[in-house]
Design a protein that fits this description.
Shape: elongated
Largest sheet: 4 strands, antiparallel
Oligomer: single chain
Order of helices and strands: EHHEEHEEE
Strand order of the largest sheet: 2-3-1-6
Structural class: alpha+beta
Distance between the termini: 34 Å
Helix content: 25-40%
Strand content: 25-35%
Number of helices: 3
Radius of gyration: 17 Å
Length: about 120
C-alpha cells in the first residue's frame, strides 16, 4: 500500500467467462488461457495491489456467466480507486491474438472495506 493510504480498499474482482470463449475451436483455447494467466500475474505485480486470494467455480458452473454467480473471483486489498481501474483495464489491454481479453471475459469490481465494526458504533461492555 502507499504511504498516503492507511486503510486499503477491500476489492472483489468478479470475472465472467463469456460465450466467445466457449465458441472457440479447441486449438485456440490455450491462447486465451495463456493471456488470462498473464493478466492474473499482472494483477499481482500491480503496485498498490495485495492479492488475498482467488476463487474459481468452474467445477460447479459450466458455460458462460453474464453476472452473478460469476465464474471466478479475486479478493485484494488495493490502495486507491485509480488502481482498481487499472486492474480492470487489463482486460482491455491484454492481447489474445488479434483481439483483447475482454472479448472472452469481463470483469467488475466491488469496492468496500474489511468487515470490521465501524468507529461510529458503540459496543456494549
Amino acid at each position: 500500500m502507499t504511504a498516503t493510504t492507511t486503510t486499503p480498499l477491500r476489492v472483489l474482482f468478479c470475472i465472467a467467462i463469456n460465450q466467445n470463449f466457449f465458441d472457440l475451436p479447441p486449438d485456440e483455447v490455450g491462447s486465451v488461457w495463456k493471456a488470462f494467466s498473464g493478466m492474473m500475474e499482472a494483477i499481482g505485480r500491480t503496485p498498490g495491489v495485495v492479492v488475498i486470494g482467488d476463487f474459481d467455480d468452474d467445477s460447479h458452473m459450466v458455460g458462460p456467466s453474464d453476472g452473478w454467480p460469476w465464474t471466478c473471483y479475486i479478493l485484494a486489498d488495493v490502495d486507491r480507486q485509480e488502481t482498481v481501474k487499472s486492474v480492470c483495464n487489463l482486460f482491455r489491454t491484454t492481447p489474445v491474438g488479434e483481439h483483447r481479453l475482454w472479448r472472452y471475459a469481463k470483469i467488475e469490481a466491488r469496492i468496500g472495506r474489511a468487515l470490521t465494526v465501524r468507529d461510529d458504533v458503540d459496543l456494549p461492555d
